[in-house]
Amino acid sequence: MDRNWLYKLGFVVVVALAAVWFLTPTVIFFRMSPEDRGDQDKFSAAVPDWMSERHLTLGLDLQGGIHLVMGVEVDKALIDRVQRRGDEILRYAEEQEVPIEGIRAERERPELTVTVPEGSGERFEKVVMEYFQDMTVVSRLDDGFVVSFTAEDVERIKTGAVDQAVKTIRNRVDAWGVTEPQISRRGDTSVLIQLPGVRDPDRAKDLLGQTAQLEFRIAEDHETTFIRDHQELMPEEVNLDSERGTGPGGTEVVAWYLTADERRHLEAAREALYEADAVPEGTVLAFERVERGQQRYYRTYVLRDRAGITGDYLTDARVALDQQRGGRPYVALEFDREGARVFEELTAENVQRRMAIVLDDTVNSAPVIQERIGGGRASITLGSMEGYDAMMREAGDLALVLRAGALPAPVRILEERTVGASLGPDLIDRGMKALAIGGLFVLVFMLVYYRGSGLVANLTLVMVLTFLLAILAAFGATLTLPGLAGIVLTVGMAVDANVIVFERIREELSQGRSPRAAIDAGYSKAFSAIVDGNVTTAIAAFVLLQYGTGPIRGFAVTLLAGIAATLFSCVFASRVFVEAMHARRNVKRVSV
Predict the structure, then answer these.
(1) For residues 286 and 304, what is the distance between their CA atoms, to the nearest angstrom?
(2) Sign of the dihedral through C-alpha 275, 277, 283, 287
(3) What tens digit of pLDDT does each residue of 294-325 get?
(4) What is the DSSP letter of 582?
(5) Residues 434 and 500 grouped into a single domain
(6) C-alpha to C-alpha distance for 457 and 502, rounded to whole angstroms
(7) What is the pLDDT of residues 173-182, one digit of tens each?
(8) Which end of the chain has fewer CB within 10 Å, C or N?
(9) How many domains are there within the chain?
(10) Does the pLDDT at position 476 exceed 60?
(11) Ranked by mean pLDDT, which of 5-9, 64-68, 226-230, 381-385 comes out on top?
(12) pLDDT at 407 over 80
């Protein structure tokens, strides 16, 4: 028998101490109250400086939280991308001196209608379309072309929109401070979101569902007479109103607009105007929610269809207080160098015009530009909500989503499920009770049936559980209900490995071998059977990990960690303990 068992025992002790070191932050974490667990500062203060702060956390099914599946409207992302491409085509055509009379983006289809002078079509195709190789001519018109992206680029844009949505949502959740969220792509156009510990589903949906597409558009107040001239198209719930102001050059401007108590009535009016082809080319109709004291309603603005500047140039968005308005919260914006230049040029060219700040297709405010604005700074005011805390939270959420970036397309809730806070502890109690009762029966059986070797089996079983939890804690894993099932399965595999070894030793003893020879032969012959069984299980776990999602992946991770702990404890550590028990020279029997 190998006489170096003492060194091996020392190695096992060192590994066990390392496991305890990795597991200690988890013990500290779960000894804290549920309220304090969400406070990272309190947890950091409770953990010694020389110790890692990685720890096990509970999944959605154990501690409660929110499960969402959001669908990304990839067709809207494609339409927006086509509209931006129209601006690029127009600029490039001007640089190359290719005459274009106009470009119109379709509202319902990802297509551009390009109008060119007679005899310029061939030059447009040769110069412009050959430059934009991801675009193709869908059809030819008498006075131009209908162009769109190629089929390959359509798929690329759609895929990129979903990937960008996953990244943006993850940034928002991380900035929100949710511990161990799960955010992943689900299918072709959906995103799976699980937020353990979150108790406010409405706030979560508002925070994650905001597109946060920030745009600054110039209002065309002098182009609003079509609203007055088509009053007969308006629903009964919509009212006509006007306001006078001073436009560029000191001219008087009368701006006509519509109001309604509910936005859907204005949306119906807008659709009627579009169907009648009444909205001037190059403009769009947008809405603002107005709150004046107890009065709340919606009104329209006529804006340029192209944004002067977008949120892509933002470098920072933070909550600030307006001391001139009693400390009212607002969101302060800062643009990068290029954004500051564009913003300054935009304001310089449109003095005495309204500049609408549009967030997610809704006008936040539309102040009149009094002078050129330099420095790359702007602000977004908030509605007159009830309560200072509510305004601060709205400002904080808006600043958060603007910093995290805009979603590439609107998202909609496809599936929503809330796990109650009481369900998780109940599941944990039942799971731990089942594990404790089952484990106790196993320990007693092994001790009675295998005597002294049963004591070794029980010690290795404790080590398996310790190593398993330590491995999960070292990687900051999340423990779920299927993960508990993986732990129970690991216990069964560990017991099975010990049974295989001890039965082999019994067989060798029955054939007349000496105790030391029986121990050597038992472990050697059992080794291949144990490894084969664990390797085949590991292959199945890898497949689950690769192709599974959510709880299935949690089960696979726990199972893989359990296999590693089982092989070390039941093959290596168990043999060291048995050799230590029978290290005397004249061993007469093996307690098995």
Answers:
(1) 10
(2) negative
(3) 778 899 999 988 888 887 777 778 888 877 76
(4) T
(5) yes
(6) 9
(7) 776 767 667 7
(8) N
(9) 3
(10) yes
(11) 226-230
(12) no
178 and 196 Cβ atoms separated by less than 8 Å: yes
Residue 375 DSSP code: S
Model confidence at 401, in pLDDT bands (50, 70, 90)?
Answer: low
**pLDDT tens digit sequence for 193-208:** 888 777 777 778 777 7
Say whether both 498 and 413 belong to one domain. Answer: no
Output the domain CATH number for residue 526: 1.20.1640.10
What are the backbone angles phi and psi of residue 196, rounded to the nearest 5°?
A: -65, 140
In this structure, the answer to whether residues 223 and 149 fall within a common structural domain is no
Tokens of 350: 């449109």
- Other Cβ atoms less than 10 A from the Cβ of 301: the count is 23
DSSP state letters, 163-219:
HHHHHHHHHHHHHHT-SS-EEEEETTTEEEEEEET---HHHHHHHHH----EEEEEB
The pLDDT, as a whole number, for residue 1 is 45
Range of the domain at 480: 5-64+420-581
Contact 260, 238 (CB under 8 A): yes
SS3 3: coil
Q: How many residues does the chain have?
A: 592
Q: What is the pLDDT of residue 497?
A: 87
Looking at the structure, tell me whether residues 453 and 486 fall in a common domain: yes
Q: Is residue 82 part of a domain?
A: yes
Q: Is the pTM of this model over 0.90?
A: no
Q: Are residues 52 and 98 in the same domain?
A: no
Q: Are 468 and 562 in contact (CB under 8 A)?
A: yes
Same domain flag for 224 and 318 = yes
Q: In what order do the strands lie in the sheet with 182-186?
A: 182-186, 190-196, 65-72, 411-419
**Taking the CB of residue 245, how many other CB atoms lie within 10 A of it?**
14
Mean pLDDT of 141-162: 87
- 466 in any annotated domain: yes
DSSP code per residue over 509-548: HHTT--HHHHHHHHHHHHHHHHHHHHHHHHHHHHHHHHH-
- Does 110 share its domain with 215? no
Phi, psi of 122, deg, nearest 5: -65, -40
CA dist 261 → 135, 194, 233, 303, 381 (Å): 43, 36, 18, 21, 21
pLDDT-wise least confident of 41-55, 113-127, 220-234, 460-474: 41-55
| Nearest residue to 213 via CA among 79, 319, 311 | 311
Give me the pLDDT at residue 164, please.
79
Q: ∠430-432-438 over CA atoms, to 5°?
A: 100
> Looking at the structure, do residues 371 and 451 belong to the same domain, yes or no?
no
